[in-house]
Write a structure and sequence with these properties.
The chain has one domain: Calycin beta-barrel core domain (Lipocalin, Beta Barrel), CATH 2.40.128. Helices cover 21% and strands 41% of the residues. By secondary structure, the protein is α+β, with helices and mostly antiparallel strands. It is globular. Pfam families: Lipocalin_2.
């Protein structure tokens, strides 16, 4: 009986580790933190082009750089999202994802991102990048801080992105971003710079 319990726990731990690796997120104990989001989030001001300038560790982005995101607000206040990135080593365009980001009715700063695909809904939900995103901070004109988290029973796995209107974030804006992170007790050391050298024209 004891051996069966041990085998079960090992299996659960292995499966959980695999899920975390596939989702390429940072694991932590307990449920996802309930971080506050931007109050009175303005969809119209947020739309337009953003550049990923910093992010937490993400396996799927180890070979990518020059990531851009374009948010276009539809009449129903749902964002049409276009994400483009390039190979870090040769600069070739790698990915051009299209999808939608739907604000939650109870909080417009919480967005549900889905990739446009002909795959069955169950498979689409499992695609990398699909999920819920929180806008933890933005001034609309220079920076935005996005957060995503997945609950996995006794563990959670999360990701952070810092976006900017330019490929380089000003010192003033970076201080604002780090102040938000420190207020939320999120370690800014988790972030790494996104490469933006010799980016192709998308």
């Amino acid at each position: 009986m004891c051996d069966s319990v041990v085998r079960f726990l090992v299996t659960v731990a292995f499966f959980t580790s695999c899920v975390v690796f596939v989702r390429s997120q940072r694991p932590g104990f307990g449920q996802c933190p309930d971080y506050p989001t931007v109050e009175n989030f303005d969809i119209k001001k947020f739309q337009g082009e953003w550049y990923e300038v910093e992010r937490s560790f993400y396996v799927l982005e180890l070979v990518t750089g020059c990531t851009t995101l374009n948010f276009t607000s539809r009449p129903d206040n749902v964002f049409k999202v276009a994400i483009k990135t390039a190979n870090r080593w040769n600069g070739n365009i790698m990915i051009g994802l299209l999808g939608t980001a739907t604000p939650q009715r109870w909080n417009r700063a919480e967005l549900v991102f889905k990739i446009d695909s002909n795959l069955p809904p169950m498979l689409v939900r499992a695609l990398p990048g699909v999920g819920n995103y929180k806008v933890l901070g933005t001034d609309y004109t220079s920076f935005a801080l996005l957060y995503s988290c997945s609950d996995m029973g006794i563990l959670h796995a999360d990701l952070l992105w810092v976006l900017a209107r330019e490929r380089e974030l000003s010192v003033t804006s970076r201080v604002q971003v780090y102040d938000i992170l420190n207020t939320l007790n999120i370690d800014p050391a988790r972030l790494t710079l996104t490469k933006h050298n010799k980016c192709p024209k998308f």
